[in-house]
């Protein structure tokens, strides 16, 4: 078996680190609130731990898959192919488009390698430019607007997730619609949806994997700092008090459920229409 | 001599359509053929995105065929729309070639 590349090692270590952090936090949470631990909380904690462990497994399998798919490439070509594959993960291309394009590039690389060309001759020496050209040939433009629409999609999914979490944790008997997650969850999750994820995609595309990995930790750190400082100094302000002590049901009834789903659907439709308009202008 | 990249891309599009009018083939072969015709270093980095764009515009279509090595190869086929575009390119090219030749003859 070939040695792992630097990029693969970095990604696997990061996945292990994040999962360990998550598992440690959940265990710490359970231990510190052991008097209030009910069955629902234990189930939620077990699910989070399971997801953390599965995530690491999925990361390792995904890296193995890249290695297996591109097994015919030599080291020089494989390293570039891996960078391209990772960069495409951060792009707005659809799953099938990504798969097909990577297959095409793999085919080109295999032919070029067997003809004795160097990888620089194939990519022109500038991998980022090569990736940019391939992506632009798909007609994706309006990167900021796409990022915003993706942010809306993630934000809606997070609202459902935190409402579901709150329901399982504290409002099991009262029903899903009665659960009222704290505003503090919004303070953490909305920056992740609208800034964290688009920035992560951007840095992944630019091959700056390490910076991309730091972003969620930085947002989490800033959130903790914000909550601690405001709790210590600004609780007299009404809106700071509300962030710390109050909450709201984001999906209070079926009407809101339908509304959120409709907004989600509209964001997908807008993305699809933007895509079609861009392809016409190619 | 510095090259005008946009002009080269436009010419490459027309030349790729002309190559595919003669035979159905795959991306790497197109790069090789362009090199054989004298295009200096027609890198895959330039040709593949152009072919992809031509496909998205409906000037080419593709079909997968098995390859001895690696994943199935994508073979490109000129569509009717691509044929029309090629005719326009040929007319434009002839006109441009005559214009440039007239201009250069006048240099003496």
Give structural notes:
The complex is a heterodimer of chains A (282) and B (108). Chain A has 282 residues and is mainly α. Among the domains of chain A are: 1-69; 71-138, c-terminal domain of poly(a) binding protein, CATH 1.10.1900. Chain A contains 11 helices and no strands. In chain A, helix 1 (6-32) runs antiparallel to helix 2 (39-69) and helix 8 (183-205) runs antiparallel to helix 9. Chain A is globular, with a radius of gyration of 22 Å. The relative contact order of chain A is 0.09. The model of chain A has no long low-confidence stretch (mean pLDDT 85). Chain B is α+β, with helices and mostly antiparallel strands. Chain B has one domain (5-105): Arc Repressor Mutant, subunit A (Orthogonal Bundle), CATH 1.10.10.10. Chain B is built from 4 helices and 3 strands. Chain B has helices at 5-22, 27-36, 44-56, 80-105, and strands spanning 25-26, 60-65, 73-78. Chain B has a 3-stranded antiparallel β-sheet. In chain B, strand 2 and strand 3 (73-78) form a beta hairpin. In chain B, helix 2 (27-36) packs across helix 3. The mean pLDDT of chain B is 87. Chain A binds chain B through residues 69, 72, 100-101, 103-108, 110-112, 114-115, 121-124, 129-130, 133-134, 136-139, 279, 282, and chain B through 26-28, 32, 41, 43-46, 48-50, 52-53, 56-57, 67, 69-74.
Strand content of chain B: 5-15%
Major beta sheet summary of chain B: 3 strands, antiparallel
Q: What is the SS-derived class of chain A? A: mainly alpha
The whole-angstrom Rg of chain A is 22 Å
**What is the CATH H-level superfamily of chain B?**
Winged helix-like DNA-binding domain superfamily/Winged helix DNA-binding domain
Task: Return the CATH topology of chain B.
Answer: Arc Repressor Mutant, subunit A
In terms of quaternary structure, what is this?
Answer: heterodimer
- CA distance, first residue to last residue of chain B: 21 Å
- Roughly what fraction of the amino acids of chain A lie in strands? under 5%
Helix tally of chain A?
Answer: 11
């Amino acid at each position: 078996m070939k040695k792992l590349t630097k990029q693969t090692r970095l990604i696997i270590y990061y996945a292990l680190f994040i999962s360990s952090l998550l598992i440690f936090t959940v265990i710490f949470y359970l231990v510190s609130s052991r008097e209030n631990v009910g069955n629902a909380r234990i189930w939620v904690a077990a699910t989070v731990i399971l997801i953390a462990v599965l995530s690491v497994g999925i990361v390792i399998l995904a890296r193995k898959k890249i290695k297996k798919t591109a097994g015919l490439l030599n080291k020089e070509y494989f390293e570039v192919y891996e960078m391209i594959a990772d960069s495409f993960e951060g792009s707005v291309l659809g799953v099938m488009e990504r798969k097909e394009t990577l297959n095409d590039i793999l085919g080109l690389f295999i032919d070029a390698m067997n003809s004795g060309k160097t990888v620089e001759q194939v990519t022109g020496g500038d991998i980022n430019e090569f990736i940019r050209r391939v992506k632009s040939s798909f007609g994706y433009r309006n990167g900021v607007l796409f990022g915003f629409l993706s942010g809306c999609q993630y934000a809606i999914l997070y609202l459902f997730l935190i409402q579901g979490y709150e329901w399982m944790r504290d409002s099991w008997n009262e029903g899903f619609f009665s659960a009222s997650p704290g505003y503090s969850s919004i303070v953490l999750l909305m920056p992740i949806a609208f800034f964290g994820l688009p920035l992560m995609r951007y840095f992944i595309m630019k091959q700056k994997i390490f910076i991309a990995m730091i972003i969620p930790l930085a947002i989490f750190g800033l959130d903790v700092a914000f909550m601690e400082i405001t709790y210590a100094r600004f609780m007299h302000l009404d809106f700071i008090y509300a962030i710390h002590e109050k909450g709201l049901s984001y999906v209070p009834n079926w009407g809101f459920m339908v509304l959120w789903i409709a907004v989600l659907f509209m964001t997908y439709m807008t993305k699809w229409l933007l895509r079609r308009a861009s392809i016409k202008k190619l | 001599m510095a090259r005008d990249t946009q002009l080269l891309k436009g010419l490459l599009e027309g030349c790729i359509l002309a190559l595919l009018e003669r035979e159905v083939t795959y991306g790497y072969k197109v790069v090789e053929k362009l090199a054989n015709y004298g295009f200096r270093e027609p890198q895959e980095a330039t040709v593949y995105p152009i072919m992809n764009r031509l496909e998205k515009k409906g000037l080419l279509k593709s079909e997968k065929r098995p390859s001895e090595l690696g994943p199935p190869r994508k073979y490109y086929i000129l569509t009717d729309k691509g044929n029309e575009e090629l005719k326009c390119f040929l007319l434009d090219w002839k006109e441009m070639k005559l214009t440039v030749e007239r201009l250069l003859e006048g240099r003496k």
